[in-house]
Amino acid sequence: MKNKLTKEANLVWEASRMILPEHKELIRKHYQELNDEIKPILSEDKLEELERAIIEAIERKSVVEITYYKNKRMIKYQGKIIRPLDLRRLEIEVADGLEFLKFDDIIDIE
User: Fold this and answer.
1) Are 88 and 100 in contact (CB under 8 A)?
2) Going from the N-terminus, what domains does the chain have, and what CATH number goes with each?
């Protein structure tokens, strides 16, 4: 394989190498997918523990840290749990407003 230091290399064409925007986007997506996190499957015991922690946080109006799975990432929210909206969502007051979290995507509560 020849490189630009080889005598017979064509330096005119060596300078014309480039990456197309489509290729650049594919490379970026590939590296992003390598860093994707897999959502853990919670046991029944863990689900019961989360339920108890939610009830206790609502009763005491205490600040909690919730680990939440969103867009293939683990995100931490810190705030007060206001109330469960229905059987599937939770309303939490964070520093910059309100967040509505799905119960199914809550991983941990501290």
Assistant:
1) no
2) 44-109 (2.30.30.100)
